[in-house]
Design a protein that fits this description.
By secondary structure, this protein is of the alpha+beta class. Helix content is 32%, strand content 25%. A 6-stranded mixed beta sheet has the order 1-2-8-7-6-5, with helices on one face. It is globular. Homodimer. It catalyses: dUMP + (6R)-5,10-methylene-5,6,7,8-tetrahydrofolate = 7,8-dihydrofolate + dTMP. It is an enzyme of class 2 (transferase). It is found in: Cytoplasm.
Length: 283
């Protein structure tokens, strides 16, 4: 929790104002931030200085694992995070590749599970990683990436948290996740939860011990209409101790994640938090 608040304070103190063309708003911005999550000791990085809704974050990443490309499928899992980008992003609405209501295009999990090769075949990046790690293999290229510039025009949004690299030391599994851009008040806790949970799940289904997860962010920013709430409200609150994440031990394979797992298979314990803060969201 401290590293999150330190980053927020750093942006407030040292950030530079940058105009964001996509949203038409200014952002207070710093370059390069790194956070580390202790998955081994189950220190779940859920923000306590405001109420955080962790289920939507896990539901979204489960949708990525399944390769979903439709906002309706994400809603069935329990998150509405793709409704706006699929249905309210004017550039995407005007895109001839859009297939209709709720279509997201070839974004995130589609690239992770069905990367299109030049010969027309598709590559399942995640399956390869799971197969290798289950056998104790780390080829120094256990990399899942959603970042495919050749197909940006086929999706509603470029990936923000775009690449995840797994590493084995003995039987301990580590994760390093890379993010090009982060809306810190709204998006960062979402992404923290996802990085932590992704390592915990991958360790569980490959039979490894979870170690640490490392989260690297290039452009970390606070939008101008979020600044007062962050500076004058959230940063003045004292954090509570970290909660813990419980995952159903019956989840033992990638097939389990693809088929029957729901949000009922996850539980957070020991969560204390301050009142919610309603930060503006920029589409």
């Amino acid at each position: 929790m401290k590293q999150y608040l330190d980053l927020c304070q750093r942006i407030v103190n040292e950030g530079v104002w940058v105009e964001n063309e996509r949203t038409g708003k200014r952002c207070l911005t710093v370059i390069n931030a790194g956070l580390t999550y202790d998955v081994a000791n189950n220190q779940f990085p859920l923000i306590t200085t405001r109420k955080s809704y962790w289920k939507a974050a896990i539901a979204e990443f489960l949708g990525y694992i399944r390769g979903y490309d439709n906002a309706a499928d994400f809603r069935k899992l329990g998150t509405k995070t793709w409704d706006a980008n699929a249905n309210e992003n004017q550039a995407w609405l005007n895109n001839p590749h859009r297939k209709g209501t709720d279509d997201m295009g070839r974004v995130y999990g589609v690239q992770g599970r069905s990367w299109r090769k030049p010969n027309g075949e598709h590559l399942d990046q995640l399956r390869k990683i799971v197969n290798n790690l289950s056998k104790g293999i780390d080829d120094r290229g256990e990399i899942l990436t959603f970042y495919n510039p050749g197909e940006f025009d086929l999706g509603c949004l470029r990936p923000c948290m775009h690449t995840h690299t797994f590493s084995l030391l003995g039987d301990t599994l580590y994760l390093t996740s890379y993010q090009r851009s982060c809306d810190v008040p709204l998006g960062l806790n979402f992404n923290q939860i996802q990085v932590f949970t992704f390592l915990a799940l991958m360790a569980q289904i490959t039979g490894k011990k979870a170690g640490q997860a490392f989260h690297h962010i290039v452009n970390a920013h606070i939008y101008e209409d979020q600044l007062a709430l962050m500076r004058d409200v959230q940063l003045k609150r004292e954090p509570f101790p970290s909660p813990q994440l419980e995952i159903n031990p019956d989840i033992k394979s990638l097939e389990d994640l693809e088929t029957w797992v729901t949000m009922d298979d996850f539980k957070v314990t020991g969560y204390q938090c301050h009142e919610p803060i309603k930060y503006p969201f920029s589409v």
